[in-house]
């Protein structure tokens, strides 16, 4: 059974979601964006119909909404979908706007799916399996850095005009809880305490902060340090996990996972197959395709969607607690 889609937002993520639907053999798509240039691009590149007002699309003419607009607009579209009893998938947020309505309608029968892209990323699934098998013993601590120079995120447009350069929807505010989605998953726990530093250290022309350093204590006793930045001129996603019996190291752009074993004093190098990024993008398309497949499976009753707004709320509140900790100079409990 095919599903009819309305995609809100035809920027970088909206266009990606069109490709993801195509990859899952879903072609019945209408796109909305307020700017004529982006509507024209989507029409010419993907052959979809677009509208200049999403309310012009009758609720009888679509089954599911994909919300790929800037984070500060998500709430209105969430409420729109819920009020019309439409399934929806929404990109990662920077606030809880719309969550009240989500929780009030959790038994409505509609699928409400928050993005959790990196849980579908092959190396992260491999790391989850390695840690779950106890290859480095009991996990004690980890450190992680995600960094990429902000103007390189969307080199085809002026970064100063994009939502991720604004204070409330800044890239670092967006990416810390985004990274926690998968970090908490592989660790098998949620933070209980947080402190850290948030700031702007570069000369990037924007209001947003460009670096976050978070110190986390988890409910299961694991300690973690997370550095998120938009100043690194060399892109990086670098993870080190310390265990009682070894160490796991991963740098995504090396396409390998290294596992040090204490007993043998040797390091196993596990190759990670390369994915296929769209031209001009860093991230591979496969994980996004799989994420939308999971949404489709939930819509059609084939499987439950593997991530919830309850979980996402915890990640957002970790961000909010970190912001309070930085302002007060005191550790915050969650």
From TrEMBL:
For this protein, the record's SUPFAM superfamilies field holds: Glyceraldehyde-3-phosphate dehydrogenase-like, C-terminal domain, NAD(P)-binding Rossmann-fold domains
Listed InterPro entries: Gfo/Idh/MocA-like_OxRdtase_N, Gfo/Idh/MocA_Oxidoreductases, GFO_IDH_MocA-like_dom, NAD(P)-bd_dom_sf
Per its UniProt record, what Gene3D superfamilies does this chain match?
A: Dihydrodipicolinate Reductase, domain 2, NAD(P)-binding Rossmann-like Domain
Q: Which intervals hold domain Gfo/Idh/MocA-like oxidoreductase N-terminal?
A: 4-96
Gene Ontology MF: a single term: nucleotide binding
Tell me where on the tree of life, at the top rank, the source sits. Bacteria
Domain GFO/IDH/MocA-like oxidoreductase stretches: 126-248
Q: Which Pfam families match?
A: GFO_IDH_MocA (PF01408), GFO_IDH_MocA_C3 (PF22725)
Name it: Gfo/Idh/MocA-like oxidoreductase N-terminal domain-containing protein
